[in-house]
Model the fold of this input.
Amino acid sequence: MQNASIVYPTDLNDSEWQLLQPLLPAAAKRGRPRQRDLREILNGIFYLLRSGCAWRLLPKEFGPWSTVHHYYRRWRQQGVWAQINHTLRQKVRVAVGKTVEPSGAILDSQTIKTGDQACESGYDAGKKIEGRKRHVVVDTLGLMLWVIVGPANVQDRDGARPLLRVVLQFYGGLRKIWADGGYAGALVDWFRAQVGDRACVLEIVRRLEGKTGFHILPKRWIVERTLGWLVKSRRLARDYETVTQSSESMIYLTMIRLMLKRLANVKP
Done:
């Protein structure tokens, strides 16, 4: 058990744990019973995510690092992190008076350097970065709908296609998706063909004419804020994951931690 005298800032409080516990997979009916407290396991994962440490450097208060990693990896393979993100996002939307599923979304990408691990990566000539690219779609609260991570050399328009296919499949209520000028051109025509008779459009938000330097664009700032949230977790300041599925899971985990804090602070 974790030493009660040691409390890390990333630990789940009682309210957050009550929200998260019902969403975790139940213990298997067969085989050896669980010997570790799942709250300790989650605290270890969130500590690693926020601090950016390696798995083997996890403090011993969380138990053996291999056990914490085992649960993280198994639930990643089972799609648990994506599902929890989906469920908590719905709860947050309802808590602030929004509909359960969004009608609007914002598309963007973020190029990030990779660590020194052997992994699939590429060179983004525009950003002059060797690494990976995070293709994301968020709702109008900035909460993650879906993320796909791939090599940085994949153009935004090309990386957006598989992402948009999934989003259109799972979010039938979407009516508008905003994107910046980098997605203009053939992607808009491709998107129109994908939606067919469905009332959903891809709207390009362009820079204001005559304006130079930084200025806020309608809707576009929402996804930029989300990308800023991600890199506050040091594990996401670079991409240290060997496989892209793990990179995606770390992003979902960051959003899960953020949403738990929001929901725990909601007053009835």
About this structure: The first strand starts at residue 104 and ends at 113. Residues 102-240 form a domain with the Nucleotidyltransferase; domain 5 fold (CATH 3.30.420). The mean pLDDT is 91. The chain is about 40% helix and 15% strand.
